[in-house]
Write a structure and sequence with these properties.
GO terms for molecular function: symporter activity. The chain starts with 15 loop residues before the first helix and ends in an 11-residue tail after the last helix. It is mainly alpha-helical and about 450 residues long. The protein has one domain: Growth Hormone, Chain: A (Up-down Bundle). Helix 13 runs parallel beside helix 17, helix 13 packs across helix 18 and helix 15 runs antiparallel to helix 16. It has 19 helices and no strands.
C-alpha cells in the first residue's frame, strides 16, 4: 500500500447503516470538544465572580487580572498535554486517548466546583484552583488533537473537511452553553448568592457531561488508519521525536504553528476577552453584557458550517486565505463598530468579526491534521496547535485586558488580530493543499 492509498475500512456514506455508523463516530469526536469549551467558557464568564471568591484581598481590577492569569494557566499547560497525549494517541490509539481526556477534563472541572474559597482556606484556595486549571489544560491539549485525528481517519475523503469542521462547531456549541448557564445565574442571583454558591453550579454540570462523553467514546471503534499502522508494525517508537526529526518535518511544524496564530487570537478573544470587555470597557450591564459573546458565537457557528462545507469543494487554502485576509483588513473596522456605543452597530461589528473568525476556524483543523502522516498525526497536530494556542490564545484575555488598562485604548483587540493575521497568512501560502486527497498513511 502506498502512502497515499485510500484506507480500507474508512466509513463511507453508501448505505443507511454506514451513515448511522458515521454519525456515531462524529458524535464521539465532537462531544469532547463541546465539553472542553463548555468548561473553559464557564470559567471565562465567571471570571469576575471567581476573582471575588479566590482573590478577595486585592482591588477589583487586580483581582480580575489574577483570575484571567489563572484562566491562562490551562492554556500554558496545553503544550505538555499535546506532547504527552500525542505520544499516547500515536502509540496506543486514538480511541483510548479520547476516553481518558474527556474524563480528566470533567473531573478537574467538577473538583473546581467543590473548592472552598479564600475565606475558608486562605491562600490554599487559589493554589488548588491553579492546579486544577493545569490538569484541565493538560487534558485539553490531548483532546483536540486526538478528536481531529479520530474523525479525519474515519471520514470519507470527499467530506473530510465538513466532518472535521464539526469539531469546531462542537466547540462553539460548548461555548454557547458555557456562556448561557452562568450568564443566566448572574442575571437571576444576587451578587452575594453568586459568590456564595451560585458559581459552583455551572462547574458541577461538567461531571454529567463528561460521563456522557465517556459513555459514547468507550463504544467507538478504533480508526482503520491506526489499526493498519499497528498491524504493519509501523508505529514510531517515539512519535514526538519522529514528528520533530528532519528538516522537512521541522519546516512543517513551523508552518503549522504560524497557521494557527490568527485562529487562536480571534476565537479566544470571543471566548475569553469579550465577556469582561463588555462590562469594563463597553459599560454594558445585565443581559446586554452577555450579548457580545453570544452574537459573535452565533455568527461563528454559521460560518464554521459553511466554511467547512465549502472547503471540501474549493479547497482548504482558498477558505483560509479569504477569511485570513478578511481578519487582516476588517478587524479594525469591526472593533470601531463594536466600540461605537450603539448596540445595533456593536452587533454588526460582532457579526462581521464572528463570521471571519468562524470561517477560518472551520478549516484550520482539517488543513492541519491532513499535513501529517498517520504515525505522528496526533503528535504533529498536538505540538503545533497547542503551542500556538498557548502563546496567542490563552494569553489574549490577560494581555488585552492589561494593555487596555495601560493604554486606555479599546482597540487593542483589533491590533492584536491584525498582527497575528500577518503571521498566519504566509503560512497559508506555504501550506500543501489536501482537500479531496487521501490521508497520508
Amino acid at each position: 500500500m502506498s502512502a497515499l492509498d485510500p484506507m480500507p475500512g474508512v466509513v463511507t456514506t453508501d448505505d443507511p447503516e454506514a451513515r448511522r455508523a458515521l454519525r456515531r463516530l462524529l458524535l464521539g469526536g465532537v462531544i469532547g470538544s463541546l465539553v472542553e469549551f463548555y468548561e473553559f467558557s464557564v470559567y471565562a464568564v465567571l471570571a469576575t465572580t471567581l476573582a471575588a471568591v479566590f482573590f478577595p484581598s486585592v482591588d477589583p481590577t487586580t483581582g480580575l487580572l489574577s483570575a484571567l492569569a489563572v484562566f491562562a494557566v490551562a492554556f500554558f499547560a496545553r503544550p505538555l498535554g499535546g506532547f504527552v497525549w500525542g505520544a499516547v494517541g500515536d502509540r496506543i490509539g486514538r480511541r483510548g486517548t479520547l476516553a481518558l481526556t474527556v474524563l480528566l477534563m470533567s473531573v478537574a472541572t467538577t473538583l473546581m466546583g467543590l473548592l472552598p474559597g479564600y475565606a475558608a482556606i486562605g491562600v490554599a484556595a487559589p493554589i488548588l484552583l491553579v492546579l486544577l486549571r493545569f490538569v484541565q489544560g493538560v487534558s485539553a491539549g490531548g483532546e483536540i488533537s486526538g478528536a481531529v485525528s479520530f474523525v479525519a481517519e474515519h471520514a470519507p475523503t470527499h467530506r473530510r473537511g465538513l466532518f472535521v469542521g464539526m469539531i469546531s462547531v462542537g466547540s462553539v456549541v460548548g461555548t454557547l452553553l458555557g456562556s448561557l448557564l452562568p450568564g443566566i445565574l448572574l442575571l437571576t442571583l444576587s451578587t452575594a448568592d453568586m459568590q456564595s454558591w451560585g458559581w459552583r453550579i455551572p462547574l458541577l454540570v461538567a461531571l454529567p457531561l463528561g460521563l456522557i462523553g465517556l459513555f459514547i467514546r468507550r463504544r467507538l471503534d478504533e480508526t482503520p488508519f491506526f489499526l493498519a499502522l499497528r498491524e504493519e508494525a509501523g508505529r514510531a517508537a517515539n512519535p514526538v521525536r519522529a514528528a520533530l526529526s528532519g528538516r522537512s518535518a521541522r519546516r512543517l511544524l513551523v508552518v503549522a504553528f504560524c497557521l494557527v496564530a490568527v485562529n487562536a487570537s480571534s476565537f479566544y478573544m470571543i471566548v475569553g476577552y469579550l465577556p469582561s470587555f463588555a462590562t469594563k470597557s463597553l459599560k454594558l450591564t445585565g443581559l446586554e453584557a452577555f450579548a457580545p459573546s453570544l452574537i459573535a458565537l452565533a455568527a461563528c457557528l454559521v460560518a464554521e458550517v459553511a466554511g467547512a462545507w465549502i472547503s471540501d469543494r474549493v479547497g482548504r487554502k482558498p477558505v483560509l486565505l479569504t477569511s485570513g485576509l478578511g481578519l487582516l483588513v476588517l478587524a479594525y473596522p469591526s472593533f470601531l463598530l463594536i466600540t461605537s456605543g450603539t448596540f445595533g452597530l456593536i452587533a454588526c461589528g460582532l457579526v462581521l468579526f464572528g463570521l471571519l473568525a468562524g470561517a477560518y476556524a472551520a478549516v484550520i483543523n482539517a488543513a492541519l491534521t491532513e499535513q501529517f502522516p498517520t504515525r505522528v498525526r496526533v503528535s504533529g497536530h498536538g505540538i503545533t496547535y497547542n503551542l500556538s494556542v498557548a502563546l496567542f490564545g490563552g494569553s489574549a484575555p490577560y494581555l488585552l485586558t492589561w494593555l487596555g488598562g495601560v493604554t486606555g485604548s479599546t482597540m487593542v483587540g483589533a491590533f492584536y488580530v491584525i498582527l497575528l493575521a500577518l503571521v498566519s497568512l504566509p503560512a497559508v501560502l506555504a501550506l500543501r493543499e489536501t482537500a479531496g486527497r487521501p490521508l497520508r498513511s
